[in-house]
Write a structure and sequence with these properties.
Length: about 180
């Protein structure tokens, strides 16, 4: 009789944490399932008991890494009463997240940095949709497209050298100008 895959906890979480460390250090391509399982102290069969593929494991690593950030985003969105409040609350959340990411970045292969950034931005699109709904933004553009434009544009802004040189008031003003232009306010 085939055993059911364990969905969380125990050895599965240990594999995820171990894989995260190896992915950050060596990159996705250079990290093999064998490397992960050797470090965990398990056999390859154990890996496939928990995961169908290394790609599935990477998805779990990303989910594990972003769980706390996503919960903070949900809280921030629920507390926002206007785009202005969003900009005010989102900036500290972003800066905290970047500080945590920067601690890891020195040990993280560039391919993982790129993949984690792309996944972060994509994972924020539902929050953009929630904000569009919350603020009653009327648009003929599908909400997922408008939310993507909002989130990807904010990401480009936040990662620009010019933005890094601004003080907090200028950063908020810059974000608000972008948000207002995009949302036609």
């Amino acid at each position: 009789m085939a055993r059911k895959a364990v969905l969380e906890g125990g050895k599965r979480d240990e594999i995820i944490r171990t894989a995260m460390g190896l992915f950050f250090e060596h990159g996705y391509e250079a990290t093999s399932v064998r490397m992960i399982m050797d470090k965990v102290g398990g056999e390859i069969g154990m890996f496939y008991h928990y995961f169908k593929s290394k790609d599935m494991l990477f998805d779990c690593v990303a989910e594990y890494f972003f769980k706390d950030f996503r919960e903070k985003c949900e809280k921030t969105v629920s507390e926002c009463t206007s785009p202005d409040v969003f900009a005010e609350k989102f900036l500290p959340l972003y800066e905290e997240g970047m500080a945590q990411f920067d601690k890891l970045k020195g040990h993280m292969h560039w391919t993982i940095q790129f993949a984690m950034h792309a996944r972060t931005v994509a994972s924020l699109v539902p929050f953009g949709i929630a904000l569009i709904d919350k603020f009653g933004i009327k648009t003929s553009v599908p909400k997922d497209i408008l939310a993507g434009q909002l989130i990807y544009g904010i990401s480009a802004t936040l990662h620009s050298e010019s933005f890094a040189g601004m003080d907090d008031a200028q950063k908020k003003e810059c974000l608000m100008e972008y948000i207002n232009k995009l949302l036609d306010k």
